[in-house]
């Protein structure tokens, strides 16, 4: 298994609903390592950079309006198969269709206000991390609990 890095955004609805701490703790308890963290306001320019593949689609204006409507928390996470692990923890985009136990299943009932964004591939993660974090903002470090999270042959 490969150790991967991925981007997670707690969207404006998660921040406004004061769910950041709860969502953050889920990723920590899962065993993913936080290697970058920041609170920011997504600008229209940053939105266009992040969602470049959607800019010319009909739904993009609503997407931009939502993602720029309030603060977001950007997380850089690292761990074995981090992209797939995070995607599984989030659940399907539409909270009404997400299973209990997932973030969207436990806290969401909307397709658009779905609380969290997670990279959908390792390539997307690399691009998205570069949008939100400078290289020096991503920290490499060992944790004292790492040996209790995952076996050596799974790292």
Tell me about this structure:
The protein is α+β, with helices and mostly antiparallel strands and 155 residues long. It has a single domain (3-141), classed as Alpha-Beta Plaits. Helices cover 36% and strands 19% of the residues. It has seven helices and four strands. It has helices spanning 12-16, 20-30, 44-50, 60-67, 82-90, 103-107, 122-132; strands at 3-10, 33-41, 71-80, 116-118. The model has no long low-confidence stretch (mean pLDDT 95).
In short, what is this structure?
This protein is α+β, with helices and mostly antiparallel strands and 155 residues long. Helix content is 36%, strand content 19%. The protein contains seven helices and four strands, in the order βααβααβααβα.
CATH superfamily: Nucleoside diphosphate kinase-like domain
Elements, N to C (H/E) = EHHEHHEHHEH
Q: Residue share in helices?
A: 25-40%
Question: DSSP strand (E) fraction?
Answer: 15-25%
CATH architectural grouping: 2-Layer Sandwich
Q: Please state the oligomeric state of the protein chains shown.
A: single chain
Tally of strands: 4
Structural class: alpha+beta
Please render the helix and strand layout as text:
Elements: E1 3-10, H1 12-16, H2 20-30, E2 33-41, H3 44-50, H4 60-67, E3 71-80, H5 82-90, H6 103-107, E4 116-118, H7 122-132
